[in-house]
Specification:
The protein is mainly α. It has one domain. The protein has four helices and no strands. Helix 1 packs antiparallel against helix 4. The radius of gyration is 22 Å and the shape is rod-shaped. The chain starts with a helix and ends with a helix.
Length: about 100
């Protein structure tokens, strides 16, 4: 009985950790793509931005990627997947001993 439960926990652990690692790799690649793009230079000589632009319009793609709410939620989901995988794997390991 405990061996079957341990197998299920190991399977959950494997799937959760693989999903977490996949999301980490996906975010790393998205960050690398953004870093390869040329950066639009901002004026430091005191010229004001064109009329009708807001602060959100002036953000670069890199800043949007870093401060985007979706990105933050995805990072928390990735952390949760990894923690679930570690905890279920540990519990499964204790059940086999």
């Amino acid at each position: 009985m405990l061996d079957n439960l341990a197998r299920v926990l190991f399977a959950i652990s494997c799937v959760a950790e693989t999903g977490g690692v996949f999301l980490v790799i996906k975010d790393i690649r998205a960050g690398q793509r953004l870093l390869r793009r040329p950066v639009q230079q901002r004026s430091i000589d005191g010229n004001s931005p064109p009329a009708g632009t807001t602060e959100a319009d002036q953000l670069s793609d890199r800043e949007r990627f870093l401060f985007d709410n979706y990105t933050t939620r995805k990072q928390w989901f990735t952390i949760a997947l990894l923690v679930i995988g570690i905890v279920t794997g540990t519990v499964g390991n204790f059940l086999t001993a």
